[in-house]
Amino acid sequence: MPENDTDVAAHWLFGDQLGPHFLTAGPDGPHRDTPLLMVESRGVFRRRRFHRAKAHLVLSAMRHRAAELGDRVTYVRADGYVEGVREAVGDAPLTVHHPTSRAALKLVRARPSTRVLPARGFLVGHDAFREWAARSGSGQLRQETFYRWVRGNHDLLMDGAEPAGGRWNLDHDNREPAPRGAADLGVPAPYRPREDDIDTEVRADLDRWEREGTVEFLGEDGPRRFPATRREALSALRRFLEVRLPTFGTYEDAVLAADPVMSHSLLSSSLNLGLLDPAECVEGAEAEYRAGRAPLNSVEGFVRQIAGWREYVWQLYWHFGPEHRKANVLRAHGEVPSWWEELDSGAVTANCLSHVLDDVRATGWTHHIPRLMILGSYALQRGWDPAEVTDWFHRAFVDGYDWVMVPNVVGMSQFADGGRMTTKPYTSGGAYLNRMTDFCGDCRFKPTVRVGDDACPFTAGYWAFLHRHRTRFEHNPRMAQAVRGLGRLSDLDALLEQERDRAD
C-alpha cells in the first residue's frame, strides 16, 4: 500500500465516478497532477444481458469523460478490469474512491498496492451513517427518521431548528391523480441531449459486438435521452429546476400513458453516473423555493427523493451486508417469464403492464410509481424469485446499479426482507391504479372485477397474495384490515382457482 500520494502511479476512475467532484484534491482525493486510469470492460456486457440504451449511455459517458481529461487519463478497453489495470499500470500502486458495488470493492481490495479512498457522490459518509445507526437504539432504521437527520445535519429546507413550512414531510400533498381527462401535464419537455461522434462510435461498437455474437442486449437504443457529460447533466438539472420542478410535487405519484415523464427530473442516471453531485441538486431546488419560484411541496418531494431515499438506499446496501440480496422471507421462487425478460409488451393484455413494458423497452426508464406499483407489484403478487426480479431491474433500467436495486427491489418492492426497510408490502388492487393512472379506462380488464374473463390481474392478484401470506400479515398494523377483508369475499375459492390457472 502506498504511504503517500507521490508513490501512486495513477488514480482509477470507475464508470460511475465521472463528475469533477471525484477528482477534487484533498486528503481523501488524488493530487491535481495524479495520472488517471479508466477501464472499459467488455466482459461486463458478456456476462449479463443489459438494456442496450444503458450500455450506450455508460460507454458514451465514459468515453466523453476520457476525451475531456485528455492526456491525463489512460483509457483501456479490455475484456475485464483485472486485465485492463494490469495492461495500464502493471503492479504499480493505485488509489480509487470507494466503488459502488460489493463486487467492485472486492476486486480493488484484492489487488495489492491499491488504496481505497472514501466514497464520493453522496451526502452522508459511511462512518457518519454508522454513528447514526448506532444511536437509533431500536434497530429500526426508518427512512423518515434518517431523512430528518440528513436535513438537519446539512441545513436543507430548515428554518433554524425547524423544517421549512413547519412540516418535515409533505408527501400527503403529493398524491394527486393527474387532472381528469388530461393526456399530459402540459409542462415543458425535459432536456434532451444531442448525439455526437462519440455516440456514433459507441453505437457502431455495440452493433459489431452483437454481430459477432459475443454480446446480447435487450430493449432498444434510439437517440440518447440521458446526459453523458457534465455539461449535459447541468443543462438537464437547470431545465428541471427552472421549468419542471414547480409541477413536480402534486402529481409525483400519478401516471399518464401518453406522458410517461410528466414533471419528473430524469436526473437519476446523471446522479448515478456521478455526473451530478446530490448536494448541487438539493441546494438548487431549495434556492428555487427560497426565491418563490417553486412551491414547498414540490421542492420537499424532490429533496426527499435525493437526500432521503437515495442516501438511505446507498447506506443500507452496505449496512445490511451481502446476505440482504438473498433475502426471501415470502419464499417466492417463481421464474421471471420470458415475455417479461424480453420486454414484450405485445404479449401482455393488461393495459398498464403493456404500456410500462413498452416504455422500458424503448427508453430503459419509467418513474417510480410504474416501477413500484405496476412492475414490482405484479412480480410480488405472482411470487417471482426476488433475486431474479432484482437482477432484471438492474439490467433493464439506465439508472440501475447493484447498490440501487438490491435495497429497492429486495427491501421495498418485493418485501423479501420481511420489513427491514418498509412496514408493509407495496402492492395494491386495480382500484389504486384506476385512481392514480389513466390505464384502466380502455383496458380489457375491469379494476373492480375479481373473478371471470374481465378480472383485473392486479385486483385478483392482490387478494391471492394476501391469502397466500395471511398468517404473516394478519398481525401487521398496516395490513390487518386488508387481511380481514378476505373473510368477506364470497368468491375467494373461485378467485384462488382462477389465479392458480392463470398464466403469468
UniProtKB/TrEMBL annotation:
Alphabetical list of InterPro entries matching this protein: Crypto/Photolyase_FAD-like_sf, PhrB-like, Rossmann-like_a/b/a_fold, UV-DNA_repair_photolyase
Pfam families xrefs: DPRP
Give me the ranges of the annotated region Disordered: 173-194
- In the record, which residues are listed under signal peptide? none
**Which SUPFAM superfamilies does this UniProt record tie to the protein?**
Cryptochrome/photolyase FAD-binding domain
Would you tell me the protein name for this molecule?
Cryptochrome/photolyase family protein
Q: Please spell out the taxonomic lineage of the organism that makes this protein.
A: Bacteria, Bacillati, Actinomycetota, Actinomycetes, Kitasatosporales
